[in-house]
TrEMBL record:
Lineage: superkingdom: Bacteria
Homology family: Belongs to the histone deacetylase family.
Keywords: Acetoin catabolism
Organism: Georgenia alba
Pathways involved: Ketone degradation; acetoin degradation
Lineage: Bacteria, Bacillati, Actinomycetota, Actinomycetes, Micrococcales
Protein known as: Acetoin utilization protein AcuC
SUPFAM superfamilies, A to Z: Arginase/deacetylase (SSF52768)
Pfam families: Hist_deacetyl
Ranges for domain Histone deacetylase: 21-318
Keyword Cell membrane set for record: no
């Protein structure tokens, strides 16, 4: 039986907004090629599994019938006024397979959810192309047409999961997933992101804690621009870990957008691939300790398509597979040649940025003069009491 399922097929690169758009599908191609070159896909217990497009019945878990019909109509040659349903905009332009490609991403993440839930525990899954966390019930947003993560969580609840915890590590607020479960206390959403004053979508403040019927169901850590490895990891550990423990989920779902990296062209955080690898290890341990080993990980944002995305998500896939890669391991020469033969760009030499993976635990001391600590404390004060936790001590 598989212990790790990586959901992938070449058809997933059809999710393509066109030349010049930041969401370039080559980032997925280069990641899969690095996974092959590093031997991750050949590890014992790893299964690469394809998935077809999700049917409308699954899309309607989160999206309105009118919206799904509009996306489908657009693929079939219809038109929408620019901005209707968030479609036909610079962020979310129409493309030839806008419905079927988007539904295939949903199908991939649903396959990951099924793989995790229908096993007897201990099975993990990684939906490489997933993590489209901005899509709203009736609107495309932030390069996201359908919200695969929210749909997969809805499926897990219907399949029998009593509680699900979702941790979003993308530099952008996981607004679409939060919105889907804003009033559902069975789902905990935790988002660690750049402060909404300085980054799209402009939401995700610490006081945003869920509807009146589900206080504490949402947690948002709004980090100052420039936050680097130690502060970012400190925030993840200080907020996500105790909240997930208190929530006691049956499944842990995580989004690993790597646009928090210092090289990313769209954001202003300064997080290395080393810290992102450490965050994946934290999530792995959390799933084992609190969710019976049931862990569904997805990709997400990430727009440095050569130096960052392939390494970050290869590390993630290896952690999901239970075989973390040494950060000092060299990037395979075959992968380097693949890149340099197709583009005149510098390629990384190792799987490390030389970044930090150590950090000081928040519980060991709060520094009110530190902007990151203030952001952490704001979230803990807003959310922890709803879970019976002490904002200072727990």
């Amino acid at each position: 039986m598989s212990t790790a399922v990586i959901v992938w097929s070449d058809e997933l690169v059809a999710y393509d907004f066109g030349s010049g758009h930041p969401m370039a599908p080559v980032r997925l191609v280069l990641t899969v090629e690095m996974l092959r070159a590093m031997g991750v896909l050949d590890l014992p217990g790893v299964e690469v599994r394809a998935a077809g497009p999700a049917p409308d019945s699954e899309l309607l878990r989160v999206h309105t019938p009118e919206y799904v019909a509009a996306v489908r109509d657009l693929e079939q040659g219809g038109t929408v006024a620019d901005g209707d349903f968030g479609l036909g905009t610079p962020d979310n332009p129409a493309f030839p397979q806008v419905h079927s490609a988007s539904a295939r991403v949903v199908g991939a993440t649903l396959e990951g959810a099924r793989s995790v839930w229908q096993a007897d525990g201990g099975t993990r899954a990684f939906s490489l192309a997933g993590g489209l966390h901005h899509a709203m019930p009736a609107r495309a947003s932030g390069f996201c047409v359908y919200n695969d993560v929210a749909i997969a969580i809805s499926w897990l609840l219907e399949a029998g999961a009593r509680r699900v915890a979702y941790v979003d590590l993308d530099a952008h607020h996981g607004d679409g997933v939060e919105r889907a479960f804003w009033d559902d206390d069975r789902v905990l959403t935790v988002s660690v992101h750049q402060h909404p004053h300085t980054l799209f979508p402009g939401t995700g403040y610490p006081q945003d804690v869920g509807a009146s019927s589900a206080r504490g169901a949402a947690a948002n850590v709004a980090l100052p621009a420039g936050t680097s490895d130690a502060g970012w990891l400190r925030a993840v550990e200080a907020v996500a870990l105790p909240l997930v423990r208190a929530h006691a989920p049956d499944v842990l779902v995580t989004q690993h957008g790597c646009d928090s990296h210092g090289r990313d062209p769209l954001t202003e955080l300064e997080v290395s691939v080393d810290a992102q690898r450490r965050a994946a290890l934290l999530m792995s341990d959390l799933a084992d300790a609190e969710a019976g080993g049931r862990w569904l990980a997805t990709g997400g944002g990430g727009y440095d398509v050569v130096n960052v995305v392939p390494r970050a998500w290869t590390h993630l896939a290896a952690v999901v597979a239970g075989a973390p890669i040494d950060p000092q391991a060299p990037v395979p020469a075959a992968w380097q040649r693949l890149v340099t033969e197709s583009a005149d760009v510098a390629v990384p030499a190792t799987m490390s940025d030389g970044g930090a993976s150590d950090f000081a635990r928040f519980a060991d001391g709060y520094n009110p003069d530190d902007a990151v600590d203030r952001a952490i404390m704001a979230t803990r004060q807003a959310v922890f009491p709803w879970h019976g936790l002490d904002p200072v001590l727990d």
